[in-house]
Amino acid sequence: MAKNRETSEKNLSLFSLQNHNLVCVKFAASFFFLALAFRLLFWDSFSLSSFVQFQKPQPQTVSPVVSSPLKAPEPSDAFHLNNQNQTSLNGSGKCNLFVGDWVSDLAEPMYTNESCRVIEPHQNCMRNGKPDLGYLYWRWNPKECELPKFNANKFLNRMRNKAMAFIGDSISRNHVQSLLCILSQVEQAVEVYHDKEYRSKIWKFPSHNFTLSVIWTPFLVKAAIYEDMNGVSSSMVQLYLDTLDSQWTEQFNTFDYVVIGGGKWFLKSAVYHENNTVAGCHYCPGKNLTDLGFDYAYRKALRLVFNFFTKDSSHNATVLFRTTTPDHFENGEWFSGGYCNRTVPFKAGDISMVDVDSIMRGVEGEEFEKAITSVGSENGVKLKLLDTTFLSLLRPDGHPGPYRQFQPFAKDKNGKVQNDCLHWCLPGPIDSWNDIVMEMLVNG
Ligand SMILES: *[C@@H]1O[C@H](CO)[C@@H](O)[C@H](O)[C@H]1NC(C)=O
Ligand SMILES: *[C@@H]1O[C@H](CO)[C@@H](O)[C@H](O)[C@H]1NC(C)=O
Ligand SMILES: *[C@@H]1O[C@H](CO)[C@@H](O)[C@H](O)[C@H]1NC(C)=O
Ligand SMILES: *[C@@H]1O[C@H](CO)[C@@H](O)[C@H](O)[C@H]1NC(C)=O
Ligand SMILES: *[C@@H]1O[C@H](CO)[C@@H](O)[C@H](O)[C@H]1NC(C)=O
Ligand SMILES: *[C@@H]1O[C@H](CO)[C@@H](O)[C@H](O)[C@H]1NC(C)=O
Ligand SMILES: *[C@@H]1O[C@H](CO)[C@@H](O)[C@H](O)[C@H]1NC(C)=O
Ligand SMILES: CC(=O)N[C@H]1CO[C@H](CO)[C@@H](O)[C@@H]1O
C-alpha cells in the first residue's frame, strides 16, 4: 500500500510534457485522439508507473474540439445493431441487459470505504470529500427485465474451486476492485501475488478456494514500451499486431472465467509491426511511415484475441468481452481544465458518444460479431459481450473528478486540481457492471 502511494506520487510529476508539433493525421479528430493518449498516460500513471511517448497538442488545435465534447456525432449505430444482435444471438428470448436506464435506488451501496480495504486513495471519493453523494443511489434498470443486485454469497459459492481473471488496462483494475469490495461482505480476499509495479495481482478467497486475478496488458497484444527512470518514454510504443501478449495467453488455461477488455491505449502513438516488418504506425510524425490509424491496430488486435478464444484455444472457459469505456470530461480535456461535476445520470438520448468511442465501439461490435459466428461447436469457449459502453456513458456523475485527491480544495478553494473523469468512484456506478457479470455468469 505504502509503496503504491509512493509510486503514484512520484508519477504525478510526469506532468511536465514536451512540446511537439502536430501534423496532419488520418482522422479529422486526430488531435482529440492525441489528447486521449495523453490522458491515458496520465491516468495509468498516477497509480502505476508509466509509459508512453506523449506530445502536447497545440492549444489552438485542441480548443475547437474540447469546446463541446458532449456534442458528439452520431449515436453509434453499431451499438444498437450489436445489442439487437446479442439478443437474437442469444435466442432464448432473454432480455437485453444493456439497454435500459438508471433509476433512483435509495438502498445503501453494498460496501463502504470502511468495509472494503482495497479502495485505492484516488478512487475513495467519499473520503476525499466528493460533496454530492447522489451518485451512489442509482440502479441500472434494463428495459425488459429485472437486474437483481449482486449476491456475494451466491457468487462465491458458484465460484468455489474456480479461477477468474480480469484482463486489460486500468479500467479492468477498477472493475476487479469493485468486485473485491462487493465480495468482501462475505469473505476478505487475500492477496497472494503482485508484480513489481503492482499492476497484475492474484487474490485467493480461502474458504471458497476461489482465485481472482487481474492481468495488466493494456494492448492485449505484445507491446514494447520504453521508459526512462522518470517514466517518460524515450521511444514510441512498438506494437506487434500478430502476437498476443503471452502474459495472459499463457495463463488462460488456468481460468474458468475471463473478463477481457481494452481499447484506449491504442490511441497512443505507436509503431505497428506485422510479419516481422514495420507495417505502419499511428501518430508518428517524421517517421516516414504510413499512419494506419488506431482503429487498424485495434481491429487487428481484437481479431487476434477473438481468434485465440474461438480457434486456437480449446480450453473450456466463459469469456466476457467488455466494450470500451467513455469518459466525461466537459469543457476541456484532462490537461486543459476539463471537469465532470454533474450530479445526476443522463437519460438515454441526452448524450451521444464522442468520435473515438464510436469508432472503437464500432470495431468491437464488428469483430465480436465475426468471432461469435465462427465459434466451432467443438470449441469449449463461451464468448459473450459485456456491453457496458452505453450504460456507462449515462453516468457522468460517478467519477472522482477532482476528488481523486484527498480534500483537494482544503488549502485553496479555487486551486487548480487535476480531474479524473474516466475511472469510477468506489463504491460507484462500476458496481453495476458486476451486477451484470453476476447475471451473465451465475444467474443466466
Ligand atoms: C448482426 O447484425 C447485422 C446487421 O443487422 C447482421 O448483418 C448480422 O447477420 C447479425 N449477426 C448475427 C449473428 O445475427
Ligand atoms: C470513509 O469516508 C468518510 C466520509 O464519508 C470518511 O470520514 C472516512 O475517513 C473514510 N474512511 C476511510 C477508511 O477511508
Ligand atoms: C482449489 O481449486 C483449484 C482449481 O482452481 C483445484 O485445482 C484445487 O484442487 C482446489 N483445491 C481444493 C482443496 O479443493
Ligand atoms: C502478413 O502476412 C499475412 C499472411 O501471411 C498477410 O495476410 C498480411 O497482409 C501480412 N501483413 C503485412 C503487413 O504484410
Ligand atoms: C520514405 O520511405 C520510402 C519508401 O519506404 C522511400 O522511398 C523514401 O525515400 C523515404 N523518404 C524519406 C524522406 O526517408
Ligand atoms: C460545474 O462547474 C461549472 C464551472 O465551474 C459551473 O458553472 C456549473 O454550475 C457546475 N455544475 C454543477 C452541477 O455544479
Ligand atoms: C465446460 O465447463 C462447464 C462447467 O464449468 C461444464 O458444465 C461444461 O460441461 C464444460 N463443457 C465442456 C465442453 O467441457
Ligand atoms: C440460447 C442461449 O445462448 N441462451 C442464453 C442467453 O443468455 C442467458 C444469460 O445471459 C443464458 O442463460 C442463456 O443460456
UniProtKB/TrEMBL annotation:
Domain Trichome birefringence-like C-terminal: 147-440
Subcellular location per the Swiss-Prot or TrEMBL entry: Membrane
Keywords carried by this UniProt record: Membrane, Signal-anchor, Transmembrane, Transmembrane helix
Residue ranges annotated for the Trichome birefringence-like N-terminal domain, each copy included: 94-146
Membrane topology: Single-pass membrane protein
Superkingdom assignment: Eukaryota
GO MF, one annotated term: O-acetyltransferase activity
Transmembrane segments: 21-43
InterPro entries in alphabetical order: TBL, TBL_C, TBL_N
GO CC annotation, single: Golgi apparatus
Entry similarity comment: Belongs to the PC-esterase family. TBL subfamily.
Protein name, per record: Trichome birefringence-like N-terminal domain-containing protein
Organism: Pisum sativum
Lineage: Eukaryota, Viridiplantae, Streptophyta, Embryophyta, Tracheophyta
